[in-house]
Structure formats: C-alpha cells, structure tokens
Amino acid sequence: MGEELAGFTIGVTADRRRDELAALLQRRGARVVLAPALRIVPLADDTELREATRTCLDRPPDVLMANTGIGMRGWLEAAEGWGLAEPLRSVLGGAYVVARGPKARGAIRAAGLYDQWSPESESCDEVVDHLRRRGVAGQVIAMQLHGERQPECTRALEDAGATVIEIPVYRWAPPTDPAPLHRLVDLVAGRLVDAVTFTSAPAAEALLRAAGDRTETVLDALRGDVLAICVGPVTAEPLVRRGVPVSAPSRARLGALVRTIVDELPRRTVTIKAAGHLLTLRGHAAVMDGELRPLAPAPMAVLRALAQTPGRVLSRTALLRTLPRGADEHAVEMAVARLRAGLKAPRVVQTVVKRGYRLRVD
Description:
Layout: E1 9-12, H1 18-26, E2 31-34, E3 39-42, H2 47-58, E4 63-66, H3 69-81, H4 85-92, E5 96-99, H5 102-110, H6 124-134, E6 140-144, H7 151-159, E7 163-167, E8 170-173, H8 179-189, E9 195-198, H9 201-211, H10 215-223, E10 227-230, H11 233-240, E11 246-247, H12 254-264, E12 270-274, E13 277-281, E14 285-288, E15 291-294, H13 297-308, H14 316-320, H15 329-343, E16 349-352, E17 356-359
Helix pairs in contact: 3-4, 3-5, 8-9, 9-11, 13-15
C-alpha cells in the first residue's frame, strides 16, 4: 500500500465503522482525527418496534421499503427474540421489496427475501417517485426508518393513497463524549484538517450544530480549504444545500470513499520550485524533492503564506496574521527558524533585512 495520503490530516465523523475507515486512511499515510458526530442507539424500549411488527402481521404490507442493512437486520433479529421471525419473513415475502441501497439489498437477501427494485441515487425521493408511478392507492407500505422519521416521504406516499407503517429500528443520539467533535470543529474552523468524511446526512447536520455560532466559519472552510467527502449523494445533501462543494464516490462504499480521497486530496496541493528544490505543500507537511517533511502548524502556516506568491517579501506583520491569536513578532521568527529546520534546507526561506522573508526562487 502506498503513502498517497502522507502529510494530510482527515477528520472522520462516522461512529459505527470509524475504526475500519481510519485504518484504511492510515494505511495510506494519513493522519486521522476520530470525532463521531452521532451514535446509533438501539431502541431502549422495543414497544414501538414490536407494535409496528404486529401491525405488519395483521395487515401484510404490499410494499417493503428497506432503507438500511443494519436496520433490516436489527428488525429481523428483534422479531427472532419475540418468536415472530418466521411469520414476519412470510408476510414480507409477499411484498414488493424496494432496497434503497446495496447494504439494504444484502440484508434482504441474507434473510431469504428478494428485492425487486433499487434507486440509482439511493434517495428516498426517487423511491417515492417510483412507487407513485407504479401506483400505491389502497396499498400498505412498511417503511423501515434509518435513524430518523422521514415525514416528507411518508406524507407523499399517504397523499398518493397508501397506508404507511413506519418501522423504527434505531435512532441517532449525540456522541457519549462530545469533546472530539468540538475539537474537530476547532480544526475545521482553523483549516488545520485537509478533509472531513461523512457517512450519513445526520452526521453532517450534527457537525454544523456542534459549530454553534461558528457555523458560518466552518461552512466557509468547507467551501474552500477543507474538502468535504461524503459516501453518497443522500449524505451530501445537507452540505450541498448550504453551498458546500462535495466529493463523493459513484458507489456508496468505504473503499470507494477512500479512493475518492486518494484521487482528490493530492490534486489540491501546491508545488513550487524554491532554491533549486521541488517543494509540494500538503496539509501538515511539505514534500521536499520527494521526501516528506512533517511541520508543526505555525511553520506550516508561514510556508503557506510565503508559497502563495513565491519570491515576494512578506513582512513580519503580514506573517503574524497567519499565526494563532496572541502571537507576537518573536513567534514569527521562531516559526521561520522551525520551518528552516523542518525543511532541512535553510536557503529556501530567505531573510530580507528590515523587510521580512520570502521563498528564494532564483
């Protein structure tokens, strides 16, 4: 496995598969910040789920909307515990089954059921459009929910004449420890991460909620320096709605998500020639003549500022604005000294007496 992502820092907001995603990114050299935005909580009280299951047995659905793999498996496992698994499989076996995505399809088939249709976009809207065209007047639709109710989808189907049984298998809750999420908000706002990954739309909403009065600052970062990478278009929707350009793989898979990151992040790097060296700027490192040189945030900030206009002199005051608040001109000198030491090429950053510093391009 290569080091395609060496020098980049990536935030991971997933909960359930965060370790798997982190391992895939770290294997490619990335530094990973784990910050679950939400956690999936099984229903503490199964009363609602049991009642919905009983309703399905009493009024066998004509259509089953299977939204997620984990939700379908959870529903069937709960029914097994109540001794209702076989009757439930039997009534679902007579339904027209729509699997919203590949994971839901896998769970359906593992249960011995057969799915008849899936939307290309994996969106609820496309499912609703398909069912309305097919005709649902007078039909019963069992809608397996994925974390939150979908009132718009339910209402659209009911307006078309269907009876909708909502199946609440699990719900979203805030993370047990919110500190990592708030730290990620700090890093995004300070543009100290290169990308943030999202595997669910509620996680994207949760990150913005955690930002509080800094929401616009976070959105500005995601519209510019920080790449937002979503597992699919449904996940991306809350960000797209707020004007954030989003990258997403064509298939909603973690492996495809990582390949998208490997393709996208290196393209966003800046490469310049300085003092006879080829210098590429990555998130928290520079690549000097093909060798990675990790840098602390302050020297990296100075290097970014100087690299915007190679050869142009920037004053200490100008460079001070790139450093954290509270820094003074001495901090600029320290950052430059650490930058030279980190690059192991002291001639790259030139001191121009009484004026400031520049990247030597001659």
